[in-house]
Specification:
- It is a single chain.
- The chain contains four helices and twelve strands; from the N terminus they run E-H-E-E-E-E-H-E-E-E-H-E-H-E-E-E.
- The chain has about 200 residues and is of the alpha+beta class.
- The strands form two sheets. It has an eight-stranded mixed sheet with strand order 2-3-4-1-5-8-7-6. Strands 10-9-11-12 form a four-stranded mixed sheet.
- A hairpin with a 2-residue loop joins strand 11 (about 190-195) and strand 12.
- The longest helix is centred in the first third of the chain and has 12 residues, at about 15-25.
- The two termini are about 25 Å apart.
Length: about 200
């Protein structure tokens, strides 16, 4: 039911998020766009295999949304970092029947892109933000398939959390991806290993 769709680097500013991602990848991110519903903006890059990376931050030029922002971004502080992972689902209603903690469905559109995103009422995802955000794309070519990788490819994504075994068990009946590993650790964290033109790189 769940397939890895993309990973997200959050920053207090988009410039910080982009710089953090580009320092690891060694190539520039591509233009993204604005998310008017949540007052955020992003830049993106393909990672091969239908997966992509986005650098995302609050858009200072956008009016505040009428609800908490997605990804817990209202609470985000500190250096830019890999902070979220997002899984695609074929049927959002069916997915939320299984994973109600993922939030409520929000319909979104930007240009030709249309998608449904599950967002908790307070914007905060479970497991200290490391429960995967759920997305359903409407259309035949989602960004992960459309974006060029520029030689960057995701090898592994490690989800670290004190209750990582519980998170893995919660997802296991509906999610299986050899690239994603769950590791019990003292504090929540995400770590991606990528193959790039400069060799293997780690993004945290």
């Amino acid at each position: 039911m769940l397939t890895l769709d993309h990973i997200a680097v959050l920053g207090e500013t988009l410039e910080e998020a982009v710089a953090h991602a580009e320092a690891a990848l060694g190539v520039p991110l591509q233009p993204g766009g604005k998310h008017q519903r949540f007052g955020t903006h992003n830049r993106v890059i393909g990672l091969g295999g239908g997966i992509y990376l986005e650098a995302i931050a609050i858009d200072p030029a956008a009016p505040p949304p009428d609800r908490p922002r997605w990804f817990g971004m209202d609470d985000f502080r500190g250096p830019a970092r890999l902070d979220k992972w997002i899984c695609a689902v074929p049927d959002m209603a069916a997915a939320l029947a299984v994973f109600p903690e993922a939030g409520s469905p929000i319909e979104l559109q930007r240009g030709d892109l249309r998608w449904t995103m599950a967002v908790p009422e307070d914007g905060r995802l479970a497991f200290d933000g490391l429960f995967p955000a759920l997305i359903q794309w409407h259309g035949s070519v989602p960004p992960g398939k459309a974006l060029p990788s520029q030689g960057c490819r995701l090898q592994t994504l490690e989800v670290l959390h004190p209750a990582a075994d519980q998170l893995a068990a919660r997802l296991a009946p509906h999610f299986s991806d050899a690239r994603v590993r769950f590791t019990v650790a003292d504090s929540p964290d995400l770590r991606a290993t990528l193959n790039t033109a400069r060799g293997p790189r780690v993004l945290t």
